[in-house]
Amino acid sequence: QVQVVESGGGLVQAGGSLRLSCRASGSPLNTYGTGWFRQTPGKEREGVACINWSTGSIYYANAVKGRFTISRDIAKNTMYMQMNSLRPEDTAMYYCAAERWTTCPRAGAGYWGQGTQVTVSS
């Protein structure tokens, strides 16, 4: 059983930056893929970025390429996402997920956190 807890959300002006953290407990993540998803009311949850903890392979959604950077700290069992050049359309609840034997967790599979709100004002 893996528990993941997100932190780092907040209110920021357009063009600003935030760093999200996802701390995992219960198991080392060396056989897992972890990722960030986001959701706004009335819309489906969308994948933002994900990373394979074994290979280091990374995936980004087109909407965030060049602005967001996903990373992991193996010693701390923690995933991060540095978000730069934030836009109002990045406003959403951001969720962390972990799923074994994959690079990108599937929606509805694996272990999910409660989310952290990111709000970007124009």
Walkthrough of the structure:
The protein has 122 residues and is mostly beta strands. The chain is built from no helices and eleven strands. The strands form two sheets. Strands 2, 4, 5, 6, 9, 10 and 11 form a seven-stranded mixed sheet that branches. A four-stranded antiparallel sheet has the order 1-3-8-7, with no helix packed on it. A hairpin with a 6-residue loop joins strand 4 and strand 5. It starts with a strand and ends with a strand. The model has no long low-confidence stretch (mean pLDDT 96).
SSE diagram, text form:
Blueprint: E1 3-7, E2 10-13, E3 18-25, E4 32-39, E5 46-52, E6 58-60, E7 68-73, E8 78-83, E9 92-100, E10 111-112, E11 116-121
Parallel strand pairs: 2-11
Antiparallel strand pairs: 1-3, 3-8, 4-5, 4-9, 5-6, 7-8, 9-10, 9-11
Shape: globular
Structural class: mainly beta
In which range does the helix fraction lie? Answer: under 10%
> Could you spell the SSE succession in H and E letters?
EEEEEEEEEEE
